[in-house]
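Honest question from a wet-lab person: if I give you the sequences of every part of a complex, can you actually get the arrangement of the whole thing, not just the pieces? Trying it with mine:
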Amino acid sequence: MTSDHPHVPHLTTALTGPLQQIESHLLEQQSRIEAWLRAQWRETPAPLYASVDLRNAGFKLAPVDTNLFPAGFNNLNPAFLPLCIQAFQTKMEHICETASNILLVPEEHTRNLFYLESVATLRDIILKAGYQVRIGSTREDLDAPLTLDLPSGGQLTLEPIQRRGNRVYLEGFDPCMVLLNNDLIGGHPEKLRDLEQMVIPPPDLGWTVRLKSGHFTHYHEVATEFARMLDIDPWLINPMFRNCGELNFQKREGEECLLINAGRLLEDIQRKYDEYDIDREPFVVIKADAGTYGMAIMSVTSVDELRSLNRKQRNKMGSMKGGASVSKFLLQEGVYTFETWGAEEAVAEPVVYMIDHFVVGGFYRVHKGRGVHENLNAPGMQFEPLAFVESCINPDTNQAPDAEPNRFYAYGVIARLALLAAARELADHREELAEGAAEAQA
Amino acid sequence: MTSDHPHVPHLTTALTGPLQQIESHLLEQQSRIEAWLRAQWRETPAPLYASVDLRNAGFKLAPVDTNLFPAGFNNLNPAFLPLCIQAFQTKMEHICETASNILLVPEEHTRNLFYLESVATLRDIILKAGYQVRIGSTREDLDAPLTLDLPSGGQLTLEPIQRRGNRVYLEGFDPCMVLLNNDLIGGHPEKLRDLEQMVIPPPDLGWTVRLKSGHFTHYHEVATEFARMLDIDPWLINPMFRNCGELNFQKREGEECLLINAGRLLEDIQRKYDEYDIDREPFVVIKADAGTYGMAIMSVTSVDELRSLNRKQRNKMGSMKGGASVSKFLLQEGVYTFETWGAEEAVAEPVVYMIDHFVVGGFYRVHKGRGVHENLNAPGMQFEPLAFVESCINPDTNQAPDAEPNRFYAYGVIARLALLAAARELADHREELAEGAAEAQA
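Yes, you can. This is the full assembly:
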């Protein structure tokens, strides 16, 4: 397919040697890996959906962020929409087998047309899976249905969510399930609290409660177990991280802890680089522990760089979407992106989408003006989405380990490890709920 | 996609008006239909896989045969292989969640390269779904592995099935499940009887036991329930049928019963044609009740035609694959095929594939030298397979009811009704087994 389609990237990867080793390994062990994953999903069911940002350094392939309220469905290859539809049907049979009416609750920022295209794609997936679906808005200023025209030519109608007792509904529409596509970073709206209807994913997995460090603690466990099974160094698929307590960039409170941890992390990375003869400069990414949208994020290559931040940089690190202030940070090993696209060698970062535990597609964020160690999901960033041309579940052992279907298979495996970490977060959450209920009864 | 690909048929359908009505109806009622089907699958789980031959007369869209041991996987659009893989994963999670090694048992006729390509495709689906799979042969003359080269460039290795106690295995391979792709028309091999391993589909759904009339009795019920829900005439999706007792074409035994029933069926069809102003000649298809491979099948437009069969025709109706003699026949309303392909107006018959209750693809059997009311699956027939270019689960309400994605959706709905009939056959079979076990205990 590649040669006929001008929209398909030719990906050139520097330092492919070690990655080919990871890919070869994953390919050879496919049936063991899948059997292992099957056992994991039996123990810990996957969330309804997720997207995982991966970075592919050639010598290392690792997730750097896992989104439990994914946007970007419009960037997937339309040829794989049937996979999304089928996976959604399967998931619904498990979680709510008699459901027929679904209320989809998206983010409130209705001026982001790209995001609205994603919501429209998600709505179509649900519709085609055979459900009635309407879109409810939590916006307080919405008192009548609002129909928006989309660049793709489609339309999207947002309707005000109404509430009666412990049920939400729309005019003439009584949903049996609420599907959240809102990360609740602005807080958990009153309207959606304590509903008798099932709310999926649970609101407590929104950024009001969830921490990246919690996710990566689970991911560390998952990657360690997986690497043990395959007898590989877990570092090849696992970004190291550290976090410290409360921190105020503007007031320079908690800075000493930050500097010490950043220094130690840089040393740890250098040690691994030495071990693998990697002639690159280690870097650390500092990001809000409860953050999204590429806000409050920066990358540094030395402690000095961190010490000498200017006021503007400090302010930037202190504020989050919706003006919330940030006090908890994650220090994560920076993973280089050595996948590039085209003659300009634009940096490309894969994003993998999953519904239930099925990998349903993905795309590359291609950013022309950005470096190999910068964050690609940053405010105002102009990325060009490049849909994966192949599915991630159709590896071909007759081709090279680095051929597209096999690289995409590798992406799908690593993304599912991050999904498993998210599934364990979800299980923790369920346990907490159960304990809470038990205490309330006692 | 259509215009770029020379291998995509341009389908011209005469008399599309009434079919567009069926298609429009199915499209409008999609979420009701899917909700209804979901409830059906909860009550009666679908078989592991099936293919359904449909005939599209423009005024009528109906299944004419349901195969529970489908071949032809190689004819599906490779772009939809991921759908097959995902559906197979889902099915396996339900029926045998800890399975890892699967023994695939195909038909014995190893000289049919088209069939072997299908087995190879099925093997790849299972492999890519994450299972170990090897192919076991029931052939008595096979005492060592036999590797066959396929026209596609691939290979297939058949290994002799060995048995120890109540388990089958291959050299160095202990399967936990046997997947049958053999309709057992030659009988149920001793080697595969009374196994402690799970055998799927159950051998009793092979043609040693199963009857088409049993299937179409269930289909009649399903079509009636479905038509009632949608408030349409069930005849639009249901071929009428009759059967009579034992019959010997060569000896002309039971002929009177055959003639009477054929005459009544032709009258019944004429009545419906009159009701719908259809200016076509009714015809009846007579086929072996336990038959396959297009053997022992003929179509007649009058009782006289049937009365005056010559010796050759009578002999042809009396024998089946493997030389078995035929004594039970199904008389089925002939459904015209008004889908044609190309300037030659070659007749095209859709075949829809399902894994679990998911429609995973399909293709057209295009036969250039055959008429609109002849059987397209006949010995020596030369059909050209034309893979569906679109999936059957991605209808598009923005396009005409007869646009490809919508026509394919309609095919997928009707095929799933036939699948549901097969699911009920399977349930009957399970009940019989349970009763048998209860009696044995008593």
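Two things worth pointing out. The radius of gyration of chain B is 22 Å. The CA atoms of residues 51 and 353 of chain B lie 4 Å apart.
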